[in-house]
Amino acid sequence: xxxxxxxxxxxxxxxxxxxxxxxxxxxxxxxxxxxxxxxxxxxxxxxxxxxxxxxxxxxxxxxxxxxxxxxxxxxxxxxxxxxxxxxxxxxxxxxxxxxxxxxxxxxxxxxxxxxxxxxxxxxxxxxxxxxxxxxxxxxxxxxxxxxxxxxxxxxxxxxxxxxxxxxxxxxxxxxxxxxxxxxxxxxxxxxxxxxxxxxxxxxxxxxxxxxxxxxxxxxxxxxxxxxxxxxxxxxxxxxxxxxxxxxxxxxxxxxxxxxxxxxxxxxxxxxxxxxxxxxxxxxxxxxxxxxxxxxxxxxxxxxxxxxxxxxxxxxxxxxxxxxxxxxxxxxxxxxxxxxxxxxxxxxx
Length: 348
Prior knowledge:
eight-stranded mixed beta sheet; 17 strands; six-stranded antiparallel beta sheet; 27% strand
């Protein structure tokens, strides 16, 4: 499988609310797979492919990534930062970043006070995101001319292959965008109307999914995202949530939504019939765009297809190539056969 598009998506830069760094690429790719593409005021990119029936299926994959905004430029030229999305402060030590100014992209490093100058009590304290600053290696006057409050900051890390896996920043959730586009590329005839939505601001509250679902009013909503793979040393197997290399994850529930059980059964049956590697997922903390779509109308059945990911919300997020292939195969198979199922949970 060719992962050039996934690499291009991961190496694009799009902090929540500032997704202009990736929209043009997504619009181009959705157009190339036969979609009529529009964009709304929230910045959601909506690709539409007409089917033969009356059922509307909305695919939602968020294009934003966790990052920062410049919150302050001090007199020495160092930048203070406001996080956009949830960071584990431990992952930020000694990282390179890009500051995206109106004039040029600047490379910088994440700095904090060295352990050598900390008191014993300070050294024991857990680092917070607010302990970090960005050093651009420039004199203060140059920084003041280039940088504005609110300029977005993203991590500087390319996608590479490691063994049977891919690692990069922003696999959460460029994987979902890639999965959506790649499945549409493979999909031929389909009965349902497909709305392929690259959503905004998921990392700060699934906001783009809510607004786009209000416009689309889908009958079925499927979020395409990643999930935790805690199959690493120090974790008990009951806490893995998912495992790399064991296939696409069909979500049963997370903290934002409970998937429609009939839709879950249908996806699982398709995977079994077509011998697609899959695993069932329950995520105790965290959610996807399905939670936003579900809140728009009681007439919509929602679910999520997830790709297992190690080291989520870091610059070395890791996914297995076989899981990516399984996710494409299952989503494509579902779309080829969707349209006739009754997902209503009403009781007679």
